[in-house]
Design a protein that fits this description.
Blueprint lengths: L15 E6 L11 H9 L2 E4 L7 H6 L5 E2 L4 H7 L5 E5 L6 H13 L6 E6 L8 H15 L8 H21 L2 H22 L9 H14 L2 H4 L7 H16 L14 H14 L12 H14 L4 H26 L1
Parallel strand pairs: 1-4, 1-5, 2-3, 2-4
Helix pairs in contact: 5-7, 6-7, 11-12
């Protein structure tokens, strides 16, 4: 490549430096129109990384790219005479170059070129999920513990993380909520990564996402179709109708997991019966179980989540216990 010229004299036209940034989460070559305009109009295009994924696409588009790691002084010199230099930034964003330009500008002895930061590609919402998938791939391949895990072995963690998420929601802790959502998301990605290795029926995280996307679209005809829904009740009716068509169940109790906590199970069964318009008398028997069943069904009919209500009461009871413990210690 041609040598980078030294810093210009103070009276020389300062020119322009364009720092072009790209996202590794976007396919190489998919650059914005302003980025392509800047690249085609540049007097020189420089990149410190000869293996940068964008370079083959730039060269295919007829843009000569020089592999160089210029100093701030060299960049200022290259811009002398009003020239434009585009620097295709590496993953770190060229901090040494930008810091050097800032120091040089601080001396007040050099007319600095105009510096423009031009994002050539942007992350779409959800782009960091790609990072999670890549990290999970590597952990699955290289971690002695993660590489041996199975769906069955991870099942208990899924239950624990779901409970911790519920606790964060009920406590109103935003930081905990964000963290627990990440832990639940990890379980999904981890199970999907394990599923890729099944010898007969493999599937990937893309299959998981594709399935839920198709389900959401089908169950929201008032959003993606021609039906209308003006109230939450209308939405629920659409959901239940399309779900029934998909599952073709012979009983409203199908799909209700019996392994869930007892109050939640009772409330869910009551909800299914009530929604289906079934007038089913509650069973009568001896013992607290039948009393709890009646309470749970009554709570659900009144729009109260019995599990959440009991947890709230239990937290109050917990605080009372702690207060009693503290009073006992003070008296002791």
């Amino acid at each position: 490549m041609n040598a980078i010229s030294p810093a210009p004299s103070p009276e020389a036209a300062p020119g322009r430096v364009v720092l072009l940034t790209t996202s590794h989460r976007v396919a190489p070559g998919l650059l914005s129109w302003p980025a392509w305009q800047a690249l085609h109009a540049a007097d020189r295009v420089l990149c410190a990384d000869g293996a940068h994924p964008q370079l083959p696409y730039l060269r295919e588009a007829g843009i000569p790219v020089e592999e160089a790691s210029p100093t701030a002084e060299e960049i200022v010199g290259a811009c002398a005479g009003g020239r434009t230099v585009v620097v295709v930034a590496t993953g770190e964003g060229e901090p040494a170059l930008t810091d050097g330009l800032a120091r040089l500008a601080g001396t007040g002895r050099v007319r600095m070129p105009e510096l423009e930061l031009l994002p050539a590609s942007y992350d779409l919402p959800g782009a960091r999920l790609l990072d999670l998938v890549q990290v999970m791939d590597r952990i699955r391949a290289e971690c002695p513990w993660s590489s041996r895990q199975t769906h069955e072995g991870l099942a208990k963690y899924g239950i624990e993380e779901a409970y911790e998420l519920v606790e964060a929601i009920e406590e109103g802790d935003r930081d905990e909520l964000r963290e627990e959502l990440g832990d639940v998301l990890l379980q999904v990605v981890f199970h999907a990564r394990i599923a890729e290795e099944h010898p007969r029926e493999p599937f990937s995280v893309d299959d998981v996402a594709g399935g839920i996307v198709a389900k959401l679209i089908h169950r929201h005809p008032h959003v993606f179709g021609e039906e209308t829904a003006d109230t939450p009740e209308d939405v629920r009716a659409h959901w239940l109708r399309t779900k029934a068509e998909e599952k073709r169940r012979s009983s409203v109790t199908e799909g209700v997991p019996l392994g869930q906590p007892g109050l939640a199970l009772a409330a869910k069964l009551g909800s299914r019966a009530r929604t289906a318009g079934l007038d089913v008398p509650l069973p009568v028997g001896e013992g607290v179980g039948y009393e709890l069943l009646a309470l749970a069904v009554r709570a659900e009919a009144a729009g109260v989540d019995p599990e959440a209500a009991l947890r709230a009461a239990a937290r109050v009871y917990r605080d009372a216990i702690r207060d009693a413990e503290g009073g006992g210690r003070r008296e002791g």
